[in-house]
């Protein structure tokens, strides 16, 4: 289930032989959100459940063996307001060369008004 405040991404994925697409989708969601976080002991620990990406749908790529489109929803709070760099660093650069997947590509990205309204730009 997605929320109207989520940022939605679709990834084209080729899992390792024997790895189910659900596991590959979960790995992409984790690695591109909170999966690379290090535990830092402070007065209040951050809730990873609040910030983690969620793979909410998987479908096979028509005419391709062992290729899937994995749909991932990211909570808005994961990203810095008004920062495309922060958003793309989280979603894209954390998974570039992700060694457990032979092929991985960002296929589509949906950014809803809730996020783009955080950009402090003058109307043109």
SSE inventory with pairings:
Layout: E1 7-14, H1 21-31, H2 48-51, E2 54-60, E3 68-74, H3 84-91, E4 103-110, H4 113-116
Antiparallel strand pairs: 1-3, 1-4, 2-3
EC number: 4.1.1.39
Organism: Triticum aestivum (Wheat)
Subcellular location: Plastid, Chloroplast
The overall average pLDDT, rounded, is 81
Oligomer: single chain
Largest sheet: 4 strands, antiparallel
CATH architecture call: 2-Layer Sandwich
Low-confidence stretches: none
Give me the secondary-structure category: alpha+beta
- As for the CATH topology, it is Alpha-Beta Plaits
Name of the top-level CATH class: Alpha Beta
Record field, number of beta strands: 4
- Strand line-up in the sheet with most strands: 2-3-1-4
Please, how many domains? 1
* Global Rg: 15 Å
Order of helices and strands: EHHEEHEH
Strand percent estimate: 15-25%
* CATH superfamily placement: RuBisCO large subunit, N-terminal domain
Individual helix count: 4
Using the alpha-carbon principal axes, give the shape.
elongated
Amount of helix: 10-25%
How far apart are the termini?
A: 35 Å
Enzyme class: lyase
Subcellular location: Plastid, Chloroplast
Keywords: Calvin cycle, Carbon dioxide fixation, Chloroplast, Lyase, Monooxygenase, Oxidoreductase, Photorespiration, Photosynthesis, Plastid
Domain Ribulose bisphosphate carboxylase large subunit ferrodoxin-like N-terminal: 2-111
């Amino acid at each position: 289930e997605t929320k109207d405040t989520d940022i939605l991404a679709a990834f084209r994925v080729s899992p390792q032989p024997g790895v189910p697409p659900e596991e590959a989708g979960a790995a992409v969601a984790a690695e591109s959100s909170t999966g690379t976080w290090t535990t830092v002991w402070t007065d209040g620990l951050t809730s990873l459940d609040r910030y983690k990406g969620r793979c909410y749908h998987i479908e096979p790529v028509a005419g391709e063996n062992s290729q899937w489109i994995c749909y991932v929803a990211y909570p808005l709070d994961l990203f810095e307001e008004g920062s495309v760099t922060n958003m793309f660093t989280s979603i894209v650069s954390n998974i570039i060369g992700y060694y457990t997947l032979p092929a991985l590509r960002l296929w589509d990205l949906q950014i809803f008004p809730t996020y783009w309204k955080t950009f402090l730009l003058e109307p043109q």
